[in-house]
Structure prediction request, 339 residues.
Amino acid sequence: MKKLACLSVAVAVLTLIVGGTAPVPVDAQAKPVVWNLPHVAAPTYYHIINLNAFAAKVKEKSGGRMEIRVHPASSLYPQQEILPSLLDGRSEIGPVLSGYLTDVLLELGVLELPFMTSSLEEHRKAQQTLKPFFAEQLGKKGLKLLTAHAWPSQQVFSHQPIPTVADWKGKKIRVYGADSSNITRSLGGVPVNIAFGELYTALEKKTVDGAITSATNAEPMKFFEVSKVINYWFLAGASGEWLVANQKAWDGLPKELQQVVLDALKEVRFEDKEWEDAKAFEERALKRFPEIGMTVVSPSKEEIEKARKLSHAAWDTWLSRSGPDGKRGMDLALKALGR
Prediction:
């Protein structure tokens, strides 16, 4: 045993003498950089599928030197804590969701104003034009914009049909932020803030009469079990989402790992895939509703136009709260949409 130990030392010394380096013990090797990525979406939803593909590509391209751990379904932080966790660095990377914006980044939600956009395609066109504006606003808060994409159009789940503006009156509607609160109020409804993870129970117990969210959540979140009507009001053509990194965490990454992250996003076509999947999920959901026992309600053009006119009160409220940056964002949005 002693001879073997002496031989090992001799080999190490000889290696150093001839200009090499002694082998590094496994325990002394550098640990991988680990970033945490929280999200509200269900594990089977396309956001999580695409994020897992991105995380796998980062690990592959870095040779295991970097790992991004995706935490779906609010399992790391509840929805209202995700943005604060990104701002203070508890999460190194994650989504900024337009539906959960506060006064901190309210101006980012310009495209989510009621009836600002009427389809995913229209929303994407405007969002791409506004990308430099979004990057600037996020940068002011210490966040680096990586990609800009969206959830599908925002509709209304309910227990009873809501085919007219008059049917909104007095109904308690689950909302998820300032914009959805303002439009619900302007249409005569009563906004009720409920976390996404608690929405199933709220619908089941009839704490609310309905809920604003993407229609594509019907199956992954099993909303079809507790709500039998989906009302296609197209309150927003999409709901924006931005994948960001905490700037300090990003600056702390070696340059080669920064490039790995950027290259991984390109190689898995993350941003394009998000838009493609949003459309595919929306089309599939519409086809699936009759099969899972849901009734689809499509308000008339006249009723939607009536709602659009009433919703401008919500635009005024948003402008008064978002200040000069909000006004600049709205001007850019209207120009992008040709209005």
About this structure: Residues 1-28 have pLDDT under 50 and may be disordered.
